[in-house]
Amino acid sequence: MGNGDQRKNEAYTTIRIQKKSGKKRINIDLRLKIDTGAQSDILPVNLYKKMFPEHMTQEDKVKEGILTPSDVILTAYGGTRIPQLGKTTITGTHKGKTIKCSFYVTILGLNTCKKLNTVSINAEVKAAPSRIDRDMPTKDRPPITNKEELISMYPECFDDTVGCFVKCRYHITVDPNIKPIVHPPRRVPLELKEKLETELDRMEKKEIFTKVTRPTDWVNSIVIKEKPNGTLRICLDPRDLNKALKREYHPIPTLEEITPSLAGSKLFSKLDASKGYWNIKIDKESSMLTTFNTPFGRYRFNRLPFGLKVSQDVFQRQIDETYQGCKGAIGIADDIQVHSKDETTHDFNLHEAMEKTRQAGIKLNADKCIIKAKECKFFGIYTLQGELNQTPLKWKPSETLKILKTGRNSGASWDSSTTWEPSYPSWPITLQISEN
């Protein structure tokens, strides 16, 4: 295999290292060449020096006590011994997740390591973009090449906390003619009781739930579901409560409305609002309506619950207000689509959307975000092709469409040009699958 073919088949990844320099935080991107056949990872001392100059003496030697001494003998594929100074563990982030990488710091330079084919991870250091201040003009903000850079520029949008629209505290309106209903606690399987108590405590600490000790007119039931990781998801069962709620009916954008703005776009990014409706706080009076029973007492929601028939309208209104006037951005439920015809325009549009996201208090799910793709599934229904060229978007035959059933024996008809399936439909629902 020639050198050109070998380079073509090399695999790379990047980890981000954040370190302090005085009062500032500096981000360093470590670009890694992956060798799955190697038994250890090495880092040439000249690269270590670039990353951590504060660890070096005036004689360009690593200070004592910095590296962990190691008796490990490193050899290249041809049997050549590689002298090493010790071991170091570097903490970084990759795709939004914190990882720890252990390296042997070698005396050999990078060029020598390459010639010996010894580097299981060849590294190069470059400056990574730091957090962008709110007052920086959008036109002056640097290009965004990948998800890791986006997270570095807007870290507060990806901090794994529950977001909160800063300008919204919603009041739920009820019909006074509807009589409140109190549900007794549902039985919980014995093997799930401890997990339920743990999840209730966790949600209370995160201020999503609050313990209720005073009398309330409404007491709802809950539905619990065990996740693949063994934890529980607690959902409100508001079947009776929904009958008493007054809905504000905020429209969701239709396919006909958004298609013209997408025509000709070649780059797409997707931002996913983490925890959806929980980004909306509700006032105390409304919170009391969401009181639910458990074997461990009553609790109430402090955030807008999934399943309420008002939730879709309230959340969509907040999304529309947040991204109103934001060029190249469309928000439907918790999906925010950013699109453009070229890369420069896309950077501007994405920065503008991210600044709106930050100012609104929305938190994003890093795992579900997509940056600068040529096609991108939007709202879970259709795929945006990279070059629309004024061609209307079409439903993919393989996609199944969920249709709400509005009552007993009365199925709702589907009109793709005027109707959207809500991301979090009202309760109760019956799902029907259409193959066409």
TrEMBL record:
Reverse transcriptase domain sequence ranges: 206-383
InterPro entries noted in UniProt: DNA/RNA_pol_sf, Retrovirus_Pol_polyprotein, Rev_trsase/Diguanyl_cyclase, RT_dom
Name the record gives this protein: Uncharacterized protein K02A2.6-like
Source organism per UniProt: Octopus sinensis
Name of the gene encoding the protein in the UniProt record: LOC115232576
